[in-house]
Specification:
290 residues; alpha+beta; Nuclear Transport Factor 2, Chain: A; 2 domains
Length: 290
Amino acid sequence: MNKYGKFFVGIAVLCVIVFLLLSKINSIDYVLADNGISPMPSSFTIETPIFYMNSEAMLESEMKTLLIHGDNIIKAVVDELKKPPIKPGHIKVIDDKLKVISYEIINQKLYLNLSKDLVSSEYWVDEYKMAILYSIVNSLTQFDTIDRIQIKVDGKDISAYFNDDNLMTDLTFNSVMNFQKPATAEEFIITFLNFIKIERYDLAYEMTTQSNSGLFKEKFTEAMIRYKSKKNRYSISQCFSKKSNGELSVIVSYLYKDSMRNIMYDGGSEEWQLIELPEGDYKVVWPRKK
């Protein structure tokens, strides 16, 4: 055999060896997969906040440990919302019969289709609708894979069950719905303005000096409806408190969104007067000082 013949024989032997090695590797992979070895266990547990409604129709969270079967975190969260809360004062508002019909996550957007039991429960009334909706949204957007959610009820968009024309199709985590007792004067005013933003004029009114008298509530609501319509395109950029001649006030600065040019610019500022109560709480002075 000449040198060329030996060369080609050597190449052929090498190919056979490579083929056998690859076959061995593939068969090992197949056996491992057949034995059920997988990077995702069949069930595992996680700790995550689950949001329930409180007596003021706002949301408060409880840390819950969920058992996840397969990778169905969506169903596990919805099922947990159907279970009673742990803390006194928290209210379960998701119907026991609610089912996840289908879901799909694409580019961190969850397309969630729920059964009609969502909108046929005893709690599905105007004052509780937002709390029900965002108990689901806020609980599910805790995960990195979900940034926004489109909810349908038996294939029909959730907006059909609301009178609010401003309800967006893509729902994101709503911190305004989360109840948090304000600790500072600035936080108090931000909470007050957030209540107006979500049209909880009853809660905003309770934060005013007029609330104890029971007077002025109708005029307050009318005034705040007009105020909200003027501030629809504004967002708070910053706020700070000041004391002058013994009077406490909070200066709120706004940013204005120009939707035509898609830019934000200075939206001016306004001043809200407060009184500080002995127990450390605050009240908005109403009627506002000119």
